[in-house]
Structure formats: C-alpha cells, structure tokens
Amino acid sequence: MRHLLLLLPLLSSCAASPRSEAVAPPSDADRIVRDLCDKRLALLGEDSNHGSATTVAFKVELTRRLVEECQFDAFFIEAGTYDFLKIQTLLKAGQPVSDDRVAAAIGGLWANQEMAPLIPFLARHLRAGTLVAGGIDDQINRGTYAQKQMARELIPFLTGPRQAECGAALERHMAWRYDAAHPYTAETAKFILGCWTELASVLASSDVAATPERQVPLQMVRNLERNYTREVALMSQAPEQPGAPQDWSRSNARDHSMFMNLEWLLSQSPQPRKAIVWLATVHAAKDVTGVDADDRHRIPFGSYVHARFGEQAFVLGFSAHSGSYSLGNTPRTHALAPAAADSLEDWAFLDHTADTRYLDGRQLRDLGPRMARPLTYSWMKAPWATVMDGLLIFREERPPHPVPR
C-alpha cells in the first residue's frame, strides 16, 4: 500500500504530461512542404492572369522553406531568360549583382509588395553561391537589360555589312521606333529573324562554340530565334475566321521552348539540382487532354517535365473560393464568381473553418472529375489529379499591391 501511495504523484505527473495531449494536425503549408521536399522539381503554379496576391505571398514563403528546409538550390521562373543569363555572367566574373537587377530580371508582372520579400532572399543566395536562378521564357521583358543592351552586345559577333544592317534593325525594334517611314511588317519580322539565325550560326560554329564565354550569347540567340520564329508565324498568318477553333501552335511552341530552357539550365550543373519552377498552372500542368474546355489542345511545359522526370516532379496548383484578382499589376480588378455548386472550391469549404484547404493527389483522385478553376479562373471540368499533383484552395483571393514607384 505504501508503495502505491509513493507512485501516485508520479502517475499524476504522467497524466498531466504534454505527451498525453492531442497532437495538432499539420498545417496545409506543412503538408505541402512534406509533399515537395524530396522532389527534384517543384512546379509552383498560379492562375494565368498572374494577379493573385494571396497565391504569390504563399509561394514566396514556400520558396523560402523549400530552400532552407529541403535544400532546393535552383529557382527558375516564367520570365525572360536573358537578364538571368546576364546575372550568371556577372556572378562568374565576380561582379556585384544588386537586388534591383534581380527584380528587373523577374519582371514587372510580379513587381508587387507580395513578391517583394523574395527579391533580397534570392539575391543573397545568388551572391553566396548557394542558389542559381534562371528565366525559362524566351519572351523579352520591357525595361530590362534584354531590351536595352543585349542586342548591342550580340551584334558585334557579326562581321561586314550584316553587322550594320542587323544592328540598325534591332536597335529600332528593341526601342520600338516604328513610324510611317519605317513600319513594322511581316517582312520586318522576317529580316530580324534572319539576323538571329545568322548570329546563331556564327556562335555555334566549331571554332567559337567550344569557348565557354560564348555559351551564354549562344543560348540568348537561340531563344531569340525561337521567339521570332513564332513572331513571323503570327505576322504572316491569315486573319482568324469567326468561330474557327483556336490555333494553339504558337502557345505550344512557347511551352516547348520553356522546357528546352529548363533542360539547358539543369545541364549547367555537374550534380543534379533540386529546382523550384515558378509559373502559371496552364504551363505547369502535367496533362490537359481531360479538361472539358478548349485548353485541352494545349501541350504544356509540364507535360514534357512529367514525361522526363515522372514522380520526381510535383505540380502544385492554386485556386480560390471567392475574392478578386487583377491582370498582372494592372489597377483594374475582377471579382471571382461565387464557387459553383459541387465544384472543388465549393466542396473544399463545406464544414471547413480554416482559410485554406489543401487537396493532395490521393484526394484529387478520389474526388474524380469535377468543376474547378485553377487554370484561368474560368470553370472547367476535369479529372484534376491528371492535371496536377496537389491543389491549394484559398477561402479568399485578392489582387496584388504594386510596389510604390
């Protein structure tokens, strides 16, 4: 009896121990980090309007956690590749890279207060050599190195009369100095494409291409050649007829170009990298053939990633139950229509009190084909598990706050 009395305080202490308390379930953010942590590629989507502040703020914090907790060492974004290639050249030469240069490379589409905390984080890791960054798009961002200086640095690789001819045409085009005397026509686009094709041939020649310092200019010019090939096709095509199906060929060519850039960026490291890829979900999607909309004719960037990397890659999509968004950083906002009955967004918040609801791959498969709007904020029906590997739905989305000028 005496022994039992001596044990009572100890038993009481054990009963009050924190270990006996219920363990709180992991947050949606923790579940997403867990799902992404062991992947080689984390494709972080967003709506195709690029104007959803809640999504951007979440992705910024997720990027930080993937780098710090999961040892991701590359950050690639749906922005022009050219400024990032210039940053790479500067870093290799031991020259300083400012936060402003990193912000300019990312581009005005994400020049908002929600994105702002990511800039110094990326710049610090770039300068420390613990992270590489790259653009996967071949389009040219306005007000950047690509628009202002790149052509002048590339043209000297040409010789003879072509240097002056192409130099004048490219200078006018980059500054968009067209008028009645110098209109922008299909022939103009073809001439510019010819300049890039000739430059690519020069830089790829056997006596030049082997030089390491020529690899970055060659990569720039190959991107410009792909970009202007699509431009010539656009300028040369006949006007679309009313009611005709949408031509996805140029969009598909752009997505393939982005995948070519991803492959090149990954090939620059002798060791496999763990890369975050920041882009719209319409590009990140693994497969859209099951989508009940015209988008099913897309061949997205993510389909190439899925074919190449399989389960080593993870596509994360985002949507919202309600709220508003904008087109990039434009001031005009658009209200989201109420969540459609029995849509993923409607189902997600039935008897759910939190501000987010994360649906992992298993849940998406179990829910089957449903209406949802993670691609363009337009309702589409699809078996969403074939499109993405996880979907985070916010209770309320909002438009971004532009960075004060």
From TrEMBL:
InterPro entries: Emycin_Estase, Hydrolase/PRTase-associated. One of its GO terms (biological process) is response to antibiotic. CDD domains: Ere-like. SUPFAM superfamilies: EreA/ChaN-like. This is Erythromycin esterase. It comes from Corallococcus aberystwythensis. The lineage of its organism: Bacteria, Pseudomonadati, Myxococcota, Myxococcia, Myxococcales.
